[in-house]
Structure formats: C-alpha cells, structure tokens
Request: fold
Amino acid sequence: MKGVKKLTILALCLLMCLQGSLRVMAKDSWEIWAQNVTERGDDCEVLITQRNAPVESVSKMEASFSLDGKEYPVSSLESAGELGLSAAYMCLVDISGSMDEERMNSVKECIKYLTDGKKTDDYVCIVTVGDDVDSSGFLKNKNKIKKEINKLAVTTQDTNLYYAVSEEMKELSQRTEQLKAMLIFSDGVDEQNDGLTEDEADSAIEDSGIPVYTVGLLKSGYSSSDEEGVKVLGSFARKSHGGIHYTPAMDDLGMEDVYEDIRSSLDNEILLTASPKELNPDKDAYEMNVTLSAKGKSVQSTISVSSNRLAGLYSTQSSQGVEEAEDGSEKVGDIRMFVWLFAIGLIALLVLVTAIVLIRNNNKKNKISGKEYAGYGRDMTEPSNKEPSGGIRGFTLTRIKDGVSFSHPLVQKITMGRGDGCGITLADDALSEVHCTFMYDGYDMVVNDTSSKNGTFVNGIPVVGQMPLKPNDILLIGSYEYKVAW
Reply:
C-alpha cells in the first residue's frame, strides 16, 4: 500500500514537472503573425510581428512567400528597428472609480517613458475611458503629449472598456504608419453592462491585425476577483497579432521595463518584400502564406488579403491578358489598329493646321513696327507722358501721388513689375519681379495678379485670379495707387 502511494506521488510530481516544462516551451516558442500588406510599385511589403525568435538578427533568417498558391522570391527581409519605421501608439487609460491614484501614477510613468523614447516621426494618442471615451488625437510634439499625460486623473465614472477598444481600434487602423500598437492600461473591469460585449471587442482586435499590449493594474492587497479582471484584460493581448500582457504587481516589473519590452517588440517586427506576378484579378481575396526559418526551426503565418490591396500589381497583367485573348482574331485587330491610327493622324493634322492659322492671325494683330514702339522701351523706370504714336491706342497708368503717367501700346498682354523683362518696369521695391499682367481682347481689359508678394488691388479689392477693369479704376500696385485708362 505504501509502495502504491509512493508511486502515485512520484507520478504526480513528474506530471507537474512535465506540465511546467510544456508551459515554458509554449511561452518561449517562436511565433509570427503576418499583418499589414502594402503595395509599393511592382512589389508588395508584408509587416510581420514575431515573438521569441531563435536568432537575434533578421539576416540569419530565411523566408518564403506565396500568394494565391504560387511561391515568389523574397527580395528583402529587414527589421523595423534597422529601417527606422515610424510608429503610431494608441494608449487607452481606464479613469474609472475602480482605479486609484497610485495606479494612475504608474500609467503616467509608463506613457512618459514612451514619450521620451519615441522617434521623431512617432505619434502618440491618449484616450481616457470612463462613461465617455475622449481622445487627445495623435500628437507628435513631446511637450503636447506630456500635457495630456498630466491631465490624467481618477474619476467616479464607470469603465466603458469594450466600446473603447472596438471604436478606437478602427481609428488606429486608419493610420498610415507601418508600425501600430494599442496599449491598454486598466484593471480589466468593464462596468457598463449596456455597452458592447467582450466578443465584439475581441472581433475588432482580431480583424485589425494590430498587436495589443495590455497592462493589468492590480491594487495593493488585490483579491482573486481582481486577478480575474486582469485575466480578461490579458485576453485582448492574446487574441491580437503578437500582443503581450503585463501584470507589473505579479511579475515584479517596473513601468520602464514594460515600455522597453513594448519598444523592443515593435523594433523586432519584420518587413518582407516580394514581387508577386500573374495574379487573378477576378478574385476578391488571395491566401497569403509567409514562412520564416532559422536554426532548424520554421514558423508560418497564413492570412487572407483583399484583392483591393494589390490592385496595382495585376492591372498591367490584366491588360496583357486582354491582348492575348485578341490574338485569336489577329487580322481584325490589325484593321482596327489601322483605322484608329488613321483617325488619330487626321485629328492631329487638323489641330496642327488650326494652331498655325491662329498663331499667324495673332502675330498679325499684335505686330507693331519699331517706329510705332518709339518711346515705349522695355525699361519704363523713367516716366513718360507721351501718347502712343502712329495711331496706336495706348494703355496708361497715372500715379495718383504725383500725376506721372506710364504708357504702353494697347496689346493683348502687358506685364508690369520691377523685372527687366516686363512691359512696364518700375523701380519700386514693393513690386515683385513680375507683379501683375494686363490682358486686352480688343474690347475688355482684365488684370491678373501673378502671385506677387504684396498683392494687387482694384478699388481696394484684392485681385484673386483675374478681375475686370474699367477706365478710371484705382489700382494699388506695389507702393503706389494708379488710375488706369485706355
């Protein structure tokens, strides 16, 4: 009898040891999650979250990539840390009455570490979760982020946690940064029974493909019921792609340790680049498979990728398929091509002839001999009171301050400024090189401000685009007002 008891005790001890070993193995096993897929020219980039890789450097890994059942070569495999990819962090903070000041200070401490350690192009968003869900928006400036951190405080509100997770995950998914992470600081208790369910929050997390890092905040002298709430919170991390759950009070972790581990996890994400070809454009989605290998170990991740994400990769292939289908009726295709080329050539010829006629007519209309331009040189820095000679109608600007006039033959286009190339050139530092343009069609005159630094004004109204003119209108151009006449 004593021998049976000894054998039973020995078996139980072995079972417990084996169970512990399996738990350690599961915890340390290499895992990957393919998540964000982005089209880049003729390539596609796949962001891969990984945990517990057997090697520290991505250069020591091998990768394979397949899409729609066909394997394609991998052109590059690099870590996010090496590439310096920017990140978007969304921090959900429980401010309900079940929290306390000590735990809130721990939250502030962790987000401050995150703010101080973030890269220049990283963004941080702080969302408070109580009766309502309030967001700071995504902020880049460290001082602005710290102002939002200092506003965090415990309230008497209830936690609407599941709703906050579902709604804010949609917001985070819209960000263009390649690295995204949701951080949840809470005791895990959703106190609003009329909100969304835990299953709905889980579904939002799984669909997003974004890692969720949960920080379970236990109060001093916590009970078993408190531990259950934290376990529920940890399920968000476990169901996400590569998330991690932290319980500082149970794991003897400081908030700096938590931040450093999250930052390291994101830096270890991998960007895989491949060039898939011959995709079927009629499919709504493709099955994508990624496999990584190192030190005799292999892990893989399979996800469904919407065809919309890779539309650019098969658009050219699709047009090639249409051309191949038309090869069966080659003769008909040749005739159609000839007809199209003939029509295009005829249209081009008509356009060319029309342009030549218009240019010749325009030159005749605006042609003025050297004698007719006497007195109207390109440099108009010296005022002239002469009327246009040779019977040519003139355009005149009279400076109101001193009555000095500046004239120019009335042609289709007259430029004014302080540049030498203008039709009317004035020595006025307030003028731009080409300040404005006067346009005349034989009947009406308009003025166009050419993006001058000080603007052009007609009767006190700023010119935006073009503005029609009437004789005796008052123009403010540069430092002076002018009366216009033609």
About this structure: The first strand starts at residue 31 and ends at 40. The chain has eleven helices and 25 strands. Confidence is low (pLDDT under 50) at residues 4-27, 316-326, 364-392. Residues 330-366 form the longest helix (37 residues).
